[in-house]
Amino acid sequence: METAQNTPQRDPYLWKQAKARVGFRMHLRAYLVINTGLWLIWAFSSFVINTTSTHSGTLFPWPIFSMLGWGIGLATHYFTIFRNNERDMIEREYQKLVSQ
């Protein structure tokens, strides 16, 4: 069992980044599970309607709205966490100022 004396010091910035990345992975997992469920509901309901009615057409794939809307939010979350690293942006800006 670790005590407070044995606990290594954490870099607060890296700890915040780690928490943000785990949050993104949880967001991605929820997106995949829920949208898979919605597509299964749509597929099952389309199958039942097509086999029990005289209507031979296909139903509109309504889960696409969830995937697109939520997907935009998920993509934004991804780019915020993995691509717009504040430390890297500051370092690049600093290098620009130094080289002037």
Descriptors for this entry?
100 residues; mainly alpha; 3 helices
Tell me what you see in this structure:
The radius of gyration is 23 Å and the shape is elongated. It has 100 residues and is an all-alpha fold. α1 runs antiparallel to α2. The longest helix is centred in the first third of the chain and has 41 residues, at 12-52. The model has no long low-confidence stretch (mean pLDDT 85). It is built from three helices and no strands. It has helices at 12-52, 63-83, 86-99. 76% of the residues lie in helices and 0% in strands.
- Measured as a percent range, the helix fraction is over 70%
Shape: elongated
Output the structural class.
Answer: mainly alpha
Catalogue the unreliable spans: none
Question: What fraction of the residues are assigned to beta strands by DSSP?
Answer: under 5%
The total strand number stands at 0
Q: Summarize the helix and strand pattern as letters.
A: HHH
The chain-level mean pLDDT equals 85
Radius of gyration: 23 Å
Main sheet attributes: strand count, strand direction, barrel closure: none
SSE blueprint and pairings:
Layout: H1 12-52, H2 63-83, H3 86-99
Helix pairs in contact: 1-2
Short overview:
The chain is mainly α and 100 residues long. Helices cover 76% and strands 0% of the residues.
